[in-house]
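Weekly structure sync, notes
Attendees: PL (lead), two postdocs, one rotation student
Agenda item 3: pending single-chain targets
PL asked that the sequence for the first pending target be pasted directly into the notes so everyone works from the same version. It is reproduced below exactly as submitted, 373 residues in total.
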Amino acid sequence: MMGFDALVFTPDDVDLSRSPLAGKLGADTYVLGAFNPGLTRLPNGNLLMMVRVAEALRRPRFDGHVHAIRWAAGGYHLDAWPLEMVDTADPRKFMMHGGGWKVMALTSLSWLLPVELNADGTAVVAVHYDRAIAPATDYQCYGIEDARISRVGDRYLMTTCSVSPERHSTTLYSSTDAMDWTLEGIVLDHQNKDMLIFEGLVGGKYWAQTRPLGDLYFAYPPGSEWRAGPSINLATSPDALHWKPYDKPGIRPHAATVATARMGGGTPPILIDDGWLTLWHGVEPSGVVGIYRTYWSILDRDDPSITVRTQHAPLLEAAPALTEPLQEQMYVSDVVFTTGIVAAGDHYIVASGEADLACRVTHIDAGVFAGGD
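Predicted structure, written out during the meeting:
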């Protein structure tokens, strides 16, 4: 089933002296995580991971305040919040008291680091700090997260989550070489996350998986095979900029298991003989963040709302043996968050974020997807 399976890039591999924040903040920082990498093949045959680097304040609490990092035109700033106004139980973030809805801020800021791997994804060739992507506009003032890269024709399209008080939106970058990226702007509005553009057109249109979030869902009828909650939806576009939600539902949580009670997209769907292969994450409720596993489905090549084949059994689970050397840096466990896939002959090269900490690369035999239930 699996061949190579290892962590190929970790927080210790990031040189913060070359960070976009270096020398601009007036505070000591460290790498909370280098994880959730978008993945694609470069024109030279090597692979590119676009790694999310979460750069965190080493001492967020001082002088009776907790601090957040924020970008604004002209540089980076520390915002101070009185401790009595917030809940600081989680060192990665803090929640505001009151207000009638959840309001939070982060003690880290994420930016994207291009990491070039060899052709089979087993070793780092170069780290391109000069091509790092950092906040550049107000709607990115709290950071840029979780890149997913698709190649459609002769263009690379990269979706990211841009974080700000204005909205938690999906933004699009485009490129002809996967190194020099142009910010195209917001393509999905607040809390519509995990946008994955199909690697090819369907019926002459761009297609994407999306995942809008909310606090209210309506129940399916008693005895339904589906469970109410976040699902993987679909949208179409004439130009990859203007998206219309598809009328039919996509992949929904199944009532037969709680392991996928919450779900979201993982890798951009790629076309194989049987249809569109998509890897996605399911979250089983447990503890603070839940247990994240990777699953797979094959979607109809002409109508991706139709699932041709899938399995309830997970494809990937968290691998504690891989993160054992990083135990002192870990802050969550039981999390594998798959974010990229590239075909490589008789196998697929799959990139994941492991424990919200490091980048994991796994080789998966193509035969795994030949059967299902």
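Discussion points:
- The chain has a mean pLDDT of 95.
- The longest strand covers residues 29-41.
Action: rotation student to compare against the earlier draft before next sync.
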